[in-house]
Amino acid sequence: MAVLALSAAGLAGAAHRTPLSWVSLPVLGYGLLISLNTLLLSPAYTPAGLYNPALLIVAFLAGSALVPRAEKAAVSASLIFGAILVAWGLLQTGLSGVSRAHAFLETPATYAAVINLLLVPALALVFLGRRGALPFAAVMLAAAMFAALSRGGLLALAAGLGVTAICARRAKLLKPRALVLTFSLLAAGWVIATVLRALPSPQAEPAPSVEVRAESSLSRLELYAQSWAALRERPFTGTGYLTFRHTLEQRRAQVPSYSTTSETWFVHNDYLQTLQELGPLGLLAFLGLTLFPPLLTYRRLPDLAVEQRPVVVAVAAALAAMSVHAMVDFPFYVPICLLLYGALLGALDQRLRTTASELTLEWRNSPLLRVARAGVLTLVVLVLLRPVAAEAAAEWGLRKAAAGKGQVAAFWLGAAQRIEPGDWRYHWYAGRFWEAQAVETGNREAAALAANAFAAGFDANPLEVRNLLGKISVHRRHRQLLRDPADPSALQQWLAQAKALAPLNPEVRRELAR
């Protein structure tokens, strides 16, 4: 939905066609690398490998194509969204007793990353002499940032202010008195967050202690070590987009702080995770996405009109803040962060373009090019619609299964398998459904369908242990219902595979104990 909405916004507010820019190359290259890795190289297909880059690219194109009127509407919408986030987070810490604000987002780190993409530009504009309602907005956003208690968020905030100061000096806009006002706004935000946290609440959670924070830092070092070790096994092509969760399962014994149940998909360092999953070429594209825009901004600031410089500096500082945050967390794997980053990058690209410095590649209005463009767009739409259709079919099938309508459930779960055969989840859903049918009815066909579904799921993703455990379970529990049950040596081989994939997984250990 976000991709479609951004596409519509970009078309509605599109300015005239412009050449490709230097900024657009790492955006398109990074997105294309993720998509190709997901479809062709990764042993563990995930729809996020298609939707995350699509969201980044479409947000970038929309941001770079908006005319001033549409851009003002987008800024207003962002401010309303920011106000909702601030109110939600502050209410959590003030009334609900939550120790770290996160609003509707999964983690305080993600909340802090999103807040920074609004807070840093607000503070930068205040620092550069803009006033109006900006100081009040900056105070409330700062309060939300301090309510999140995210060390990565505070590090990113400091980096964003540092980039603001460097670029302000380059643009001849540095005002020492504005620095005092900026830190005063931050101090006011800290006071508000502290007072709210001190309010009495029957369900108040204690703030993380120094020991807990130290353990968190050590656990990240353990994750870094395992990611680096996984990279050495596939140093050129990478292990595949979003495969770190499987790396953690295989090497969980070397990450004692995560015990046997804690789960994460992320290294908590997007640079290292990109290197592990996409290889050196992926890291190069990612560096172009994160480091190149602030450097280009610094270079081109003197060539811009004076009235344009404050906004350019503010946007570049926000992008730099998220790029620094990515060194200790995972904002570039979170859709809402990608959306905001892409839109801001597009807005920056539009302001930095100069006719003499851009690439000479242009979209010419030739019939052949229009046909090719329509063909590529159609292919992209079909590729992106497939996971949506499969998810809808699976969700409907699971609901019907819960309602006891087995025949309808079987149809829709099978449809999800056929629509998206590369996604292991749909085979797993179908396998569990048919295994339950075999347990309930003793039906031979149900047992065979369960075994086939689990086998297809493991073929689709040989790094995911759940389908392999399902296959072992069916051949062990329902041997009498299968025409060709696995012999003991095959079961032992599958168990050895399961142990290699997830040696500390409780289900794997139970199967081994049997």
How is the topology of this model organized?
Blueprint lengths: L1 H11 L11 H18 L6 H18 L2 H27 L13 H20 L6 H15 L2 H20 L5 H23 L11 H24 L10 H7 L19 H21 L1 H9 L8 H17 L9 H18 L14 H36 L3 H14 L4 H18 L2 H17 L4 H13 L10 H14 L4 H8 L1
Helix pairs in contact: 1-3, 2-3, 2-11, 3-14, 4-6, 4-8, 5-6, 5-7, 5-8, 5-13, 5-14, 6-8, 7-13, 9-11, 12-14, 13-14, 15-16, 16-17, 17-18, 17-19, 18-19, 19-20
Architecture overview:
With 514 residues, the chain is mainly alpha-helical. The protein has 2 domains: 2-12 and 21-199 and 215-352, no CATH class; 368-506, Tetratricopeptide repeat domain (Serine Threonine Protein Phosphatase 5, Tetratricopeptide repeat). The chain is 72% helix and 0% strand. The protein has helices at residues 2-12, 24-41, 48-65, 68-94, 108-127, 134-148, 151-170, 176-198, 210-233, 244-250, 270-290, 292-300, 309-325, 335-352, 367-402, 406-419, 424-441, 444-460, 465-477, 488-501, 506-513. The two termini are 47 Å apart.
